[in-house]
């Protein structure tokens, strides 16, 4: 039997996000966020994808973010359970509209400021490092409706003010920061990813890439601000990772895979290398996209990140003509179905070796330390008659991915840590369900929002606790 022991100082952790857990959507002075307008059910996808201009709260619809898992009121209990698991690092996010209800205020909401002080102090009490995401699919709706959100260059300044406030207030607690969660998702799920929707007369592609440019400028300016206000911290960028495989050795498929890979990762070129890659200039030209940028934008891009973070759930498979094969639509990035791989209950490809491949691809290209900040299995969990939750399938999934990650380190890839997604059950960002569970801590809540919110440990809780204690997987 082989043990998989990680380098000294490696950070095993767990992640949640404010918009999927906190709830208390209208408490403590918090303002309305884009995520608060995305319902569960039949209308969810059209709102998420930005197909509904000026979305509003509709009577009779259920909005999962409004209650989340009530982390806002239960954080002390939850942090204590994570500390019992032994987490070395805890990843969460700060709700922009909890600090700045409208987004354009100069002075933050004191109740919001106080909440995150208490949360981060609780983490420090339990000796957990913090990785905090500034914008995790989160923008105040006031900015969206009154300024057009990220379509408007002015939003850069509002974000930088928010970021500077976070660094000044919480830099003493936070060792690692991320500017935008999965920034590349803006191209695939515009409203959930960045609060973008489109009117019938608008040029969607032009506006998408211009908004992405504004986000990239904001990210670079936030990097500069962190080094001024929280110089002992590190800051990174993040994408939704997962390499693109060509469906076949047909050169057309290989070329399509190359194009898909580039469009998925050019965000990192800007944030890690300080400029758009050459092929994006050609892409913009061929598609009639004119990016309005200033000399200050180009200068700000020189503020490059300390590390590259990414989520990894699945690889993708590219084909020149997807009409020829069965499509995999389990995730927002549609690709060809890979005949060599199995999928989860929600159609997400399960590909542990793909994590090792992705690690090598990203490091080879950007030569920055990496951080796996999301990985996990969404599955339905059943409570047994004795109250136990035997999620061996989750343990198998995590074990295979941790082993593949270990192999990536042996390849020579510098990796800061591994953070399991949804360490506590939370609202699924993709479907809005609670039944699509990722956690090692069960939360009693169903898809319609009913339940006691009781927390209980799953079998995977004790397994991951042992992994953290052993700093890897020790075969017993």
Mean pLDDT level: 96
Task: State the major sheet.
Answer: 8 strands, parallel, barrel
Q: Give Rg in angstroms.
A: 21 Å
**Could you give the distance between the termini?**
8 Å
* Gross morphology: globular
**Helices and strands: which structural class?**
alpha/beta
Q: What's the number of extended β-strand segments?
A: 16
Low-confidence stretches: none
Query: In DSSP terms, counting alpha (H) and pi (I) runs of 4 or more, how many helices?
Result: 15
The share of residues in extended strands comes to 5-15%
Helix content: 25-40%
Strand arrangement within the widest β-sheet reads 2-3-4-5-6-8-12-13
Concise description?
With 476 residues, the chain is α/β, with parallel strands linked by helices. The chain has helices spanning 18-21, 44-48, 71-85, 96-99, 110-125, 141-147, 154-170, 190-194, 204-229, 251-273, 278-286, 295-300, 352-366, 392-410, 459-470; strands at residues 4-5, 11-15, 89-93, 129-135, 176-180, 234-240, 244-246, 307-311, 316-318, 327-328, 335-336, 370-374, 415-421, 441-443, 455-457, 472-473. The strands form five sheets. It has an eight-stranded parallel barrel, surrounded by six helices.
């Amino acid at each position: 039997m082989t043990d998989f022991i990680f380098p000294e100082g490696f950070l095993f952790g767990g992640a949640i996000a404010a918009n999927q857990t906190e709830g208390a959507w209208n408490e403590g002075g918090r303002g309305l966020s884009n995520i608060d307008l995305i319902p569960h059910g039949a209308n969810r996808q059209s709102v998420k994808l930005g197909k509904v201009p000026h979305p509003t709260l509709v009577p009779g619809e259920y909005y999962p973010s409004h209650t989340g898992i009530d982390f806002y009121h239960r954080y002390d209990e939850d942090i204590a359970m994570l500390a019992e698991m032994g987490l070395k690092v805890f990843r969460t996010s700060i709700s922009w509209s909890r600090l700045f209800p409208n987004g354009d205020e100069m002075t933050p909401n004191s109740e919001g400021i106080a909440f995150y002080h208490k949360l981060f102090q609780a983490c420090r009490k339990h000796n957990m490092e913090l990785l905090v995401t500034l914008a995790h699919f989160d923008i105040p709706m006031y900015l969206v409706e009154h300024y057009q959100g990220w379509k408007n260059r002015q939003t850069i300044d509002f974000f930088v003010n928010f970021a500077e406030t976070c660094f000044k207030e919480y830099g003493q607690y936070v060792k690692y920061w991320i500017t935008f969660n999965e920034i590349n998702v803006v191209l695939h799920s515009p409203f959930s990813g960045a609060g973008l929707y489109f009117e019938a007369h608008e040029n969607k592609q032009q506006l998408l890439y211009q908004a992405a440019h504004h986000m990239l400028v904001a990210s670079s300016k936030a990097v500069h601000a962190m080094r001024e206000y929280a110089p002992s911290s590190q800051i990174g960028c993040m994408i939704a990772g997962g390499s693109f495989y060509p469906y076949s050795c047909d050169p057309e498929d290989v070329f399509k895979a190359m194009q898909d890979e580039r469009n998925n990762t050019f965000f990192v070129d800007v944030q890690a290398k300080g400029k758009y890659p050459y092929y994006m200039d050609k892409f913009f030209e061929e598609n009639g996209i004119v990016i309005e940028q200033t000399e200050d934008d180009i200068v700000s891009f020189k503020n490059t990140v300390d590390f590259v973070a990414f989520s990894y759930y699945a690889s993708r498979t590219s084909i020149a003509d997807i009409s020829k094969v069965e499509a995999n639509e389990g995730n927002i990035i549609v690709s060809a179905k890979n005949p060599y791989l199995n999928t989860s209950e929600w159609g997400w490809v399960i590909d542990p070796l793909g994590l090792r491949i992705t690690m090598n691809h990203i490091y080879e290209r950007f030569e920055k330390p990496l951080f796996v900040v999301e990985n996990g299995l969404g599955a339905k969990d059943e409570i047994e008659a004795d109250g136990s939750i035997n999620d061996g399938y989750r343990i198998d999934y995590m074990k295979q991915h941790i082993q593949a990650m270990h192999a990536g380190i042996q390849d020579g890839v510098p990796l800061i840590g591994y953070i399991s997604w949804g360490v506590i059950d939370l609202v699924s960002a993709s479907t809005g369900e609670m039944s699509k569970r990722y956690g090692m801590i069960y939360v009693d809540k169903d898809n319609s929002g009913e339940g006691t919110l009781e927390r209980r440990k799953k079998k995977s809780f004790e397994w991951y606790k042992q992994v953290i204690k052993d700093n890897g997987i020790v075969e017993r």
